[in-house]
Amino acid sequence: MTRDICVVVPTIREYECVRAYAENAREHGFDLDRLHFVLVTEDFCETDAMARMLDEEG
């Protein structure tokens, strides 16, 4: 049985760490369709850029 994984990234300012996380998962043959990210933001965070990055990562 495979399970989905939720990755919670708190108070995210350097959201590029999500790209590194996804790349590491790819390198190890992990199915990225099973990953779900929750980005905990602050008022000043670049939420539009974060959304674009998540779209790019699939």
Could you characterize what this model shows?
The protein is of the alpha+beta class and 58 residues long. It has one domain (5-57). The chain has two helices and two strands. It has helices spanning 17-27, 47-57, and strands spanning 5-9, 35-39. The chain has a two-stranded parallel ribbon with strand order 1-2. The chain is elongated and about 40 Å long. The relative contact order is 0.28.
SSE layout:
Layout: E1 5-9, H1 17-27, E2 35-39, H2 47-57
Parallel strand pairs: 1-2
Largest sheet: 2 strands, parallel
Please count the helical segments: 2
Shape: elongated
Order of strands, main sheet, comes to 1-2
* Total domains: 1
Percent of residues in helices: 25-40%
Oligomer: single chain
Question: Using only CA atoms, what is the Rg?
Answer: 12 Å
Kindly estimate the percentage of residues that lie in beta strands according to DSSP: 15-25%
What structural category arises from helix and sheet content? alpha+beta
Amino- and carboxy-terminal Cα gap: 23 Å
Summarize the helix and strand pattern as letters. Answer: EHEH
Unreliable sequence segments? none
**Mean pLDDT metric:** 84
Total strand count, please? Answer: 2
